[in-house]
Amino acid sequence: MTGGEIFREAWIAGVRRHFPGEPKPSYIVPWADTPAWERASAGAVYEQVALLIRQGGTDKLSREQRGRFVALCWIAQIYRHIPDPKPAYVADWEQLPGWQQETDADIFDHIVATLA
Q1: Distance from C-alpha of 82 to C-alpha of 2, rounded to nearest angstrom
Q2: What domain of life does the native source organism fall in (predicted)?
Q3: Which among 30, 18, 102, 92 has a CA at the least distance from the CA of 63?
Q4: So what's the pLDDT on residue 108?
Q5: Which pLDDT value is given to residue 22?
Q6: Sign of the CA dihedral 23, 5, 42, 38?
Q7: CA-to-CA distance for 22 and 14, rounded, in angstroms?
Q8: 50 in Cβ contact with 27 (< 8 Å)
Q9: 81-110, pLDDT tens digit by residue?
């Protein structure tokens, strides 16, 4: 399984766990049906998180800090792939819905678990 697939797996699990009600189909689309730019972004964010974890010290980060890191890395990928993204795609942490904040923190923790 690639890093991007691990990221997507964690995203889908988090959405299913934290999203209030029924999530949009695009939130839980399987890896094979995920758009190419999104697969590339998932792989890039996985690598950024994995590198940070391997360098050490991430055990001292709070859950919120871990989620913020994932969100910020994702925003960079949005700007890389979408020339003029919707404001919601690049929202700051405070503007993200709670379910998305929780999902981003879960993604970081899932990557930690895969590297253990």
Answers
A1: 23
A2: Bacteria
A3: 102
A4: 98
A5: 95
A6: negative
A7: 13
A8: no
A9: 999 999 999 999 999 999 999 999 999 999
pLDDT value for 56: 94
Which residue do the tokens 């094979």 mark? 32
CA 104, CA 68: separation in Å to the nearest integer?
7
Mind spelling out the 3-state secondary structure of the chain? CCHHHHHHHHHHHHHHHHCCCCCCHHHCCCHHHCCHHHHHHHHHHHHHHHHHHHHCCHHHCCHHHHHHHHHHHHHHHHHHHCCCCCHHHHCCHHHCCHHHHHHHHHHHHHHHHHHC
User: How far from chain centre, in Å, is Cα 65?
Assistant: 13
What are the tokens at 81? 């792939």
Amino acid at 44: A
State residue 4's pLDDT score.
Answer: 98
Confidence at residue 96, expressed as pLDDT on a 0 to 100 scale: 97
